[in-house]
Amino acid sequence: MIPASRIAEWLYTFRGNWLFGPPRSRRENSVMTSPSAPSLTVYELRQYSQNPGMRDALIELFEAQFIESQDCVGSYVLGQFRDLANPNRFVWIRGFTDMGARTRALDAFYTSPRWLAHRPAANATIADHTDVLLLRPAGPRLGFRFDPRRRPPPEAVEKPGGLLVATIAHLGAPPTPDVVAAALGIAHDGRGICLARLVTEPTPNGYPRLQIREDANVTVALAAYSGRESYETAVAETPAATPPGVACMERLLLVPTRRSYLRYKGDPT
User: Fold this and answer.
1) What is the dihedral of CA 64, 89, 252, 82, to 10 degrees?
2) Which tens digit of pLDDT belongs to each residue from 215-240?
3) What is the pLDDT of residues 41-65, one digit of tens each?
4) What is the mean pLDDT of the chain?
5) Residue 240 · residue 165 · CB < 8 Å
6) Helix axis angle, 113-123 relative to 99-110, nearest 10°?
7) Structural domain includes residue 263
8) Residue 57 and residue 124: Cα distance in Å, rounded?
9) Residue 216 is assigned to a structural domain of this protein
10) Of 10, 52, 164, 217, whose CB has the highest number of CB atoms within 10 Å?
11) SS3 state at 223
12) What CATH number is given to the structural domain containing 183?
């Protein structure tokens, strides 16, 4: 939560960067623009309920078969995670350059020989795959910085990746700039490294074969911590409060898997 003394400063900065308002010269994406580092404007936050004891089996299959095969059709895999609070939940994030590209990429991947060959094994591990949030950056420079060349390669060994925390604020009001700024401010604790600030993408799902949460009206803030202790210290130092416009909140405590691009990489300063 942002200290009361800095609320005005935060709102001023956020509204200056708001998606609908900034001058044209400031409408730049936060990622590199080379072919190897695409500019992503649409994301999926996917939470899978796994059959008991099957999460690691899916992670092993996913990291061997479903990362580069999605990248090559324009469905970029940013991160894979074990939910720290639920041993039967697998969470992952992917991104697309725009909504049209999302439709084309999903159709290409889910009709590909790679997916069709491994679909039975993957689906056998999953109890439910419909908890999906379709998201976009809350403003310029608020999306993920992504360069797949920095993702751990297939032969990478397991290394600590810290803890990623996804703070999901379910809004009880229209997502105006002030409501969104207040909701995203919940996750600003001064300790975690901000990875992205996202809001619901309102464009209709262009690939209805894959369900999303059509009723979602959320903000999602993702931050990386060196570990659970660092996160819990931040929580202890941050006053608990729910700002106006937020109906309820949830937090996902996510441990990056062996090949996850998104992970704690140290304090950039």
Assistant:
1) -40
2) 999 999 999 999 999 999 988 887 77
3) 999 999 999 999 999 999 999 999 9
4) 87
5) no
6) 80
7) no
8) 10
9) yes
10) 164
11) strand
12) 3.30.70.100
Q: What is the mean pLDDT of residues 83-107?
A: 98
- Encode 215-244: b = buried (16+ Cβ within 10 Å), e = exposed: ebbbbbbbbbbbeeebbeebeeebeeeebe
Q: What residues contact residue 123 under an 8 Å CB cut-off, 6+ apart?
A: none
What is the distance between the alpha carbons of residues 178 and 197, in angstroms, rounded to a whole number?
A: 14
In the chain the beta strands, taken as DSSP E runs, fall at 42-50, 76-83, 89-96, 126-137, 163-171, 193-200, 218-225, 246-256
- Alpha helices of 194-241 — where are they, by DSSP H? 228-237
> Look-up: residue for tokens 């020989």?
113
Domains contained in the chain, number: 1
- Whether 40 is in a domain gets the answer yes
Q: Which domain holds residue 204?
A: 4-256
Query: pLDDT: is 262 or 185 the higher one?
Result: 262
Where do we find the tokens 């060196």?
A: 226
Alpha carbons within 13 angstroms on the beta-carbon side of residue 41 total 14
The identity of residue 128, as a single letter, is D
Whether residue 202 lies inside any domain: the answer is yes
**pLDDT(28) > 80:** no
pLDDT of residue 267: 64
Q: Is 243 or 152 the better-scoring residue by pLDDT?
A: 152
Kindly tell me the burial class for residue 201, based on how many C-beta atoms sit within 10 Å of its own C-beta (0-12, 13-18, 19 or more): buried
SS percent in the chain: helix, strand, coil, step 5 = 30, 25, 45
**Residue 238: per-residue pLDDT:** 77
